[in-house]
Amino acid sequence: MAHEQRLSLAAINITIHPHTSIRYVELIKHAAKTKEIIKIRGTSHGLLNGAYNIKRGKPEEGIEGEVSKFTQIDFNSRWLNTETSKEAVDDDVKKVVIPENLKPNYERFNYIFYPKKHLFVFQTYSSGGKQLSPNFMMKFLDSLFSLEKIKAHFNAVDLTIVPDKDSLNKIWKIPRIEKLVMTIKRPNPDDFDDEEQEYLEEMNSQNTREIKLEHSSISGRSITPNEKTRILARIAANNGVVSAKGKDQMNKPIEESTKAHPRVINRYYDSGSTLEAIAVREYSREFLS
């Protein structure tokens, strides 16, 4: 009997310079070896757990592991004694003995990293109904790659949540675009078509890491993007962010952003015959096309 299990995946585009596949492999493996616990929000923490080659001896074909999410207990915080409904006294708190290496509320989310495309694909929904948002993963990876022990080897690491393929169209469909902002983080030039290369070469020739372009419309008019602007928007959508403000048909304010619409792939697999990690391997490839 089939045991249908939901699987949801999202992805983050990781960019470093120089940008060879081996450098990307080294980045992920180095980050996993640090075993650094990263605080995300409140008591929620994360750990990049493992970085294993999918194919033996061929790390450039893909690396897999998991992101572990758990609660980090602050033993210096105040404790409640539920029997007295009062703050626990020091003698009571001293009775609490939890080994430092044990963390409660553990949740695991598999990831696959494709060095050639520098895409970090991960679960946003795993077995047991556990969920992890793309924004949580973004904050986790940004904090992890910002560690001095990482920056010393790889300098700046830029991250972009892969947007839904229709995210730019949502912007272009705003009836009256009054403000258009595009932030482009220095991408890998081999990711784009020939018509886009010239804009990327300009960034390289000027040693520019990030460009922010802002368009404001003539009063009462709508911005009409030309081909150059549309090309820059495509680059920014996958290497930064595109956002717009304007008015809808009822003249009410409307805002759209590629960041607000991450690409999420929802699939189902038979958990009785297929391991979750194998299902992640299979469906993560959809992000490569």
Description:
This protein has about 290 residues and is α+β, with helices and mostly antiparallel strands. The protein is about 25% helix and about 35% strand. Strands 1, 2, 3, 4, 7, 8, 9, 10 and 15 form a 9-stranded antiparallel sheet that branches. The protein has a 4-stranded antiparallel sheet with strand order 12-11-13-14. It has a two-stranded antiparallel sheet with strand order 5-6. The model has no long low-confidence stretch (mean pLDDT about 90).
Keywords:
289 residues, alpha+beta, nine-stranded antiparallel sheet, four-stranded antiparallel sheet, 26% helix, globular
Entry summary:
This protein is of the alpha+beta class and 289 residues long. The chain has eight helices and 15 strands.
Write the layout of secondary structure elements.
Layout: E1 4-15, H1 21-33, E2 38-41, E3 44-53, E4 63-71, E5 80-81, E6 86-87, H2 90-93, E7 107-114, E8 119-126, E9 130-131, H3 134-145, H4 148-154, E10 158-161, H5 167-172, E11 176-185, H6 194-205, E12 210-216, H7 227-238, E13 240-247, E14 253-257, E15 265-270, H8 276-284
Largest β sheet strand count, sense and barrel closure: 9 strands, antiparallel
Shape verdict:
globular
Topology pattern, helix = H, strand = E: EHEEEEEHEEEHHEHEHEHEEEH
Mean pLDDT: 91
What percent of residues adopt helix (DSSP H or I)?
A: 25-40%
> Which structural class do the helices and strands define?
alpha+beta
**Unreliable residue runs:** none
Quote the distance from N terminus to C terminus: 33 Å
Please report the number of helical segments: 8
Beta-strand share of residues: 25-35%
DSSP E strands, number: 15
| Rg over alpha carbons | 22 Å
